[in-house]
């Protein structure tokens, strides 16, 4: 019996997961390799960070999603090497190294946070790219209110209740809006020594406008709403330093000033997976400033039609780095693979259909750009609500998310306020372990009780 065509997908985000699902009826063997065991609905991370949703509602298990897809399997592993000549993917896990052979490769490893060359900022200003980030921020956000309640020093309380959000794109705007609602509504009656509504929320960016990609009308509408909620909006300010107790910003005239704050959120800039650099070095493809691969019109790697690069790892026609581009690219790649196997013409160029952009500013208020329409307020918020419910994976997650939104937006509660010290400290502790021993997976080394790591190879078809 002939071995099925082997499709290896790196990443379980929108690009990777949707590529696997679109191949469910194709005569292929799909292997999804990802460093986490879940699919992350990244647009709602800020709601995990601010206690609206639980992490499980936006991050269902990948193998649960694909459990009925008989031609797909999921492997846990951090991909460290792609060999285009040998057509292999090397990944690491607590059990060691795994080498997986492929006939077609789909690289959809996503992007991480970019600190524009100042990676030390990450110690004090977590990004918003993973569940770990969101849980750490939850601990920091709710934790500073607790510490402010304890302190007898008014100046210390002022610093603790100052929140700085860096980046005025959708993530930054949504985060600033939710922190404002948290302090003004949810926590209003919960403390005795402090008034949470007096918290200072600063949203800053080096760009001249909030939500600049949404156009002037929606940008101004979002800014007005934020300022009405008490958010200080500071544009044309570049962050030049971050430490445990605040940030230093620089204006266009070169003047610098300091904002004291113990809770900072970094929502500015993305950097593609370092796997993009590997692909470029082996294929001669170009990279843009964010490390994204300049792909062919059909989303393939130059000189390697068997390799597709999707989502945040690819750049083509200045398409935006949003979920819809990854999802549509995944569908296109699956169609090309199926066409090749059926002997039909392939290589058709990918065309992105822009379905619009939207961002929530507060409860019952959003901004949306859909084709020629520019919507603000409650109608835009309803559209946002429906679209996000549709794209959440799983009926159970949709129901529980809707219930939590009712609790948070109609009422004042936040059902996911639990945070632990481990959540706050874990990321930096793991990074230190990685630095001390970079050869061990996730900095953890072999897990106690497990056999010593051994290399393995995933090259043949699974048995029926």
Automatic annotation (TrEMBL):
<dbReference type="InterPro" id="IPR023753">
    <property type="entry name" value="FAD/NAD-binding_dom"/>
</dbReference>
<keyword id="KW-0812">Transmembrane</keyword>
<keyword id="KW-0472">Membrane</keyword>
<dbReference type="InterPro" id="IPR036188">
    <property type="entry name" value="FAD/NAD-bd_sf"/>
</dbReference>
<feature type="domain" description="FAD/NAD(P)-binding">
    <location>
        <begin position="6"/>
        <end position="329"/>
    </location>
</feature>
<feature type="transmembrane region" description="Helical">
    <location>
        <begin position="378"/>
        <end position="395"/>
    </location>
</feature>
<feature type="compositionally biased region" description="Low complexity">
    <location>
        <begin position="455"/>
        <end position="464"/>
    </location>
</feature>
<dbReference type="InterPro" id="IPR045024">
    <property type="entry name" value="NDH-2"/>
</dbReference>
<feature type="region of interest" description="Disordered">
    <location>
        <begin position="435"/>
        <end position="464"/>
    </location>
</feature>
<keyword id="KW-0285">Flavoprotein</keyword>
<keyword id="KW-1133">Transmembrane helix</keyword>
<keyword id="KW-0274">FAD</keyword>
<keyword id="KW-0520">NAD</keyword>
<dbReference type="Pfam" id="PF07992">
    <property type="entry name" value="Pyr_redox_2"/>
</dbReference>
<keyword id="KW-0560">Oxidoreductase</keyword>
<comment type="similarity">
    <text>Belongs to the NADH dehydrogenase family.</text>
</comment>
<protein>
    <recommendedName>
        <fullName>NADH:ubiquinone reductase (non-electrogenic)</fullName>
        <ecNumber>1.6.5.9</ecNumber>
    </recommendedName>
</protein>
């Amino acid at each position: 019996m002939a071995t099925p065509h082997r499709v290896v997908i790196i990443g379980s985000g929108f690009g990777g997961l949707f590529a696997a699902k679109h191949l469910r009826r194709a005569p292929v063997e799909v292997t999804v390799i990802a460093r986490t065991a879940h699919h992350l609905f990244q647009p709602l991370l800020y709601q995990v960070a601010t206690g609206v949703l639980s992490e499980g509602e936006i991050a269902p298990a990948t193998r649960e999603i694909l459990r009925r897809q008989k031609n797909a399997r999921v492997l846990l592993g951090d991909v460290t090497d792609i060999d285009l000549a040998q057509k292999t993917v090397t990944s690491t896990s607590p059990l060691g190294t795994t080498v997986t052979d492929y006939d077609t490769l789909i690289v959809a490893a996503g992007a991480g946070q970019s600190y524009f060359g100042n990676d030390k900022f990450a110690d004090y200003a977590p990004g918003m790219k993973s569940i770990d980030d969101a849980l750490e921020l939850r601990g920091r956000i709710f934790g500073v209110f607790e510490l402010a309640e304890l302190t007898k020093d008014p100046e210390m309380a002022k610093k603790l209740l100052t929140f700085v959000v860096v980046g005025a794109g959708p993530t930054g705007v949504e985060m600033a809006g939710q922190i404002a609602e948290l302090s003004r509504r949810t926590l209003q009656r919960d403390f005795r020594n402090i008034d949470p509504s007096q918290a200072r929320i600063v949203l800053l960016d080096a760009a001249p406008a909030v939500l600049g990609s949404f156009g002037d009308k929606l940008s101004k509408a979002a800014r007005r709403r934020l300022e009405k909620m008490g958010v200080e909006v500071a544009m044309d300010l570049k962050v030049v330093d971050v430490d445990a107790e605040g940030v230093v910003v620089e204006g266009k005239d070169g003047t610098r000033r300091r904002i004291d704050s113990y809770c900072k959120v970094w929502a500015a800039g993305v950097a593609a997976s370092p796997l993009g650099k590997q692909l470029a070095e082996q294929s001669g493809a170009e990279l843009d400033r964010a490390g994204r691969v300049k792909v062919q019109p059909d989303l393939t790697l130059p000189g390697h039609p068997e390799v597709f690069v999707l989502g945040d790892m690819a750049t083509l026609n200045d398409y935006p780095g949003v979920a819809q581009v990854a999802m549509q690219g995944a569908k296109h790649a699956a169609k090309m693979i199926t066409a090749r196997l059926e002997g039909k013409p392939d290589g058709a160029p990918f065309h992105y259909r822009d379905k619009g952009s939207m961002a929530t500013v507060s409860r019952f208020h959003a901004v949306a750009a859909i084709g020629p329409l520019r919507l603000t307020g409650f109608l835009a918020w309803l559209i946002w609500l429906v679209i996000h419910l549709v794209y959440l994976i799983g009926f159970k997650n949709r129901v529980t998310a809707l219930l939590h939104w009712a609790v948070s937006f109609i009422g004042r509660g936040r059902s996911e306020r639990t945070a632990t010290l481990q959540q706050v400290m874990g990321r930096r502790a793991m990074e230190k372990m990685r630095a001390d021993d970079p050869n061990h997976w996730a900095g953890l080394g072999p897990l106690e009780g497990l056999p010593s790591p051994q290399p393995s190879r995933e090259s043949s078809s699974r048995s029926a």
